[in-house]
């Protein structure tokens, strides 16, 4: 299979997941580019951010027209997340200039940890969903939004790992948004944040435009197909599958970074992730008698 076709298929697969679940694009694409395609981590992160910015813009515009975006909260989050993302991009470029390829292994480890945390957040949100309450802005909302944005922006700018699951959890638990506005606000803010991080990477030359075009060639139809398919598939199963894929990807990145794990050990890790994912899915789908 040619390299170009492989990149288009990567885009298609990730686009299907994003369209069907709403999250997971950046968290999956960077490991694919690093582990499978052999793209250097710094270039994979920059290209992934540019590619994700384009796809999220389409989704954000769609949600904005449907009035599912809390515009004020999105802008407040951006006050913290945009400068944090730009600062992370500059820090990554500064370190890369001074140590070169020596940054690759530590950066892969950081990406693996970020992706693993994102998967854990998805499992946690599924097992222990925050109680939804009537929408009410918390006290000191601006301060809480800026701090939340700083954390999410720095992690995304440094690793490109999608912080959508973590931010969605914050939007429900801290900002008490109604469920139908969580996805719209998350995606709209992500578009703002991703463009800031993408422009920063474009300025420092970390974006492979040809690679990004190949990814978009597959992801745009993938997102459209995934959006249509999502209404026919169980959302819980899709989210659990995505969380499992993220955990498996984190393990693959750890091995890429030099974790002394033989191929058999990696297979065992994949099997363990599959078992955990199934057990969590079964626990949520079939509650205990006392819970029911």
What can you see in these coordinates?
The chain has about 290 residues and is mostly helical. It has one domain (about 5-285). Helices cover about 80% and strands about 0% of the residues. The longest helix has 29 residues, at about 70-100. It is globular. The protein starts with a helix and ends in a 7-residue tail after the last helix.
Short description:
With 292 residues, the chain is mainly α.
Average pLDDT level = 78
Q: Which ranges are low-confidence, i.e. pLDDT below 50, for 5 or more consecutive residues?
A: none
What overall geometry do the principal axes of the alpha carbons give? globular
| H/E series | HHHHHHHHHHH
Structural class: mainly alpha
Total DSSP helices: 11
Radius of gyration based on Cα positions: 18 Å
Largest sheet: none
Distance between the termini: 50 Å
Report the portion of residues in β strands.
Answer: under 5%
Roughly what percent helix? over 70%
Number of strands: 0
- Number of domains as seen in the coordinates: 1
């Amino acid at each position: 299979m040619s390299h170009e076709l492989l990149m288009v298929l990567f885009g298609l697969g990730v686009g299907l997941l994003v369209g069907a679940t709403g999250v997971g694009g950046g968290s999956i694409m960077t490991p694919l580019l690093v582990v499978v395609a052999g793209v250097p981590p710094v270039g994979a992160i920059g290209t992934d951010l540019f590619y994700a910015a384009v796809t999220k813009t389409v989704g954000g515009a769609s949600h904005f027209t449907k009035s599912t975006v809390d515009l004020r909260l999105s802008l407040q989050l951006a006050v913290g997340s945009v400068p944090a993302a730009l600062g992370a991009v500059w820090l990554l470029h500064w370190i890369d200039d001074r140590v070169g390829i020596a940054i690759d292994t530590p950066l892969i480890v950081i990406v693996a940890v970020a992706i693993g945390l994102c998967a854990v957040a998805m499992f946690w949100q599924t097992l222990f969903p925050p109680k939804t309450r009537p929408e009410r802005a918390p006290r000191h909302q601006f301060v809480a939004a800026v701090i939340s944005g700083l954390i999410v922006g720095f992690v995304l700018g440094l690793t490109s790992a999608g912080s959508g699951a973590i931010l969605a959890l914050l939007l429900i638990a801290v900002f008490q948004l109604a469920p139908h506005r969580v996805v719209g606000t998350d995606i709209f803010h992500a578009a703002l944040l991703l463009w800031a991080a993408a422009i920063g990477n474009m300025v420092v030359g970390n974006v492979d435009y040809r690679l990004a075009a190949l990814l978009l060639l597959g992801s745009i139809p993938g997102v459209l197909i995934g959006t249509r398919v999502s209404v026919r598939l169980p959302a819980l199963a899709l989210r659990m599958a995505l969380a499992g894929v993220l955990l498996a990807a984190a393990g693959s990145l750890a091995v890429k970074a030099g974790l002394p794990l033989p191929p058999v050990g990696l297979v065992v890790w994949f099997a363990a992730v599959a078992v955990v994912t199934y057990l969590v899915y079964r626990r949520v789908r079939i509650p205990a008698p006392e819970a029911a």
